[in-house]
Each structure stands twice: as structure tokens, then as C-alpha cells.
Amino acid sequence: MLSIVVDTNQFLSGFIYHGMIKTVFDLILNNRLKLYVSPTLKTEILEKLKKFEVNGQAQNEVMYFMETRGISIEPTVKIDVCRDKKDNFLLELSEEARADYLITRDRDLLELPGAKWKNTKIVKP
User: Which residue ranges form the domains of the chain, and what is each CATH number?
Assistant: First the structure.
């Protein structure tokens, strides 16, 4: 089974706006993909939900999805390669999880050499 990491903006796009990534979440729900999350990712998602004043029910749905469908790990590896240092945690999570894909629209991540980090391909949804 393929394993993935989804960045914050794409995660919210799937839940709040039902963007293209919604199909990926359907595959996770049907146990066709493994989703990896970290405490840092969960915190960032929750902060953005509050920033955009997303209602409590939607916040609960997102957090419930992460808790029940996500495999939570705390990366031990430390990486410092991104131009935007706030993105390094996604590479750390991807590496620690040995994720097949990191799904993002973040240009800083997509512009890494070969659009990959170690064995993780960095792709748009």
C-alpha cells in the first residue's frame, strides 16, 4: 500500500473546499492509502483552521480524520534544506515515514532537485 504525507494547505483544501485532493482522502477512507501525520502537522492544521475561523464541527471532523485515519509519528531526523524553513518538518515526516509521496502545491518543496526528497516523490494533487 502506498504511503503519503499531505501538507497543511492541501489537507485543508480537501476538507474545507473539497478540492482535487478529496479523491486522495476517499482512498485513505477506503484503506487504499496510508496517511502519515505528525504532532507538528496536526498543530499547524489546527492553527490554520482557527485562523480561517472554521467552525468547531469542521475542526472536529478534520482532527477526527487525522486521529482515526492518520498514522502519527514524531520524526527524529532533523532536516534543513528548504528555503522556507517552516517546510522542513514535512520532509522530516516524509523521510521518517518512508512516504512514497508528499502531496503539496508549495513551490519551495516542488522545486527541490528532481521534485523528491530521498525516496519520497513531491507531487501536486
Answer: 2-123 (3.40.50.1010)
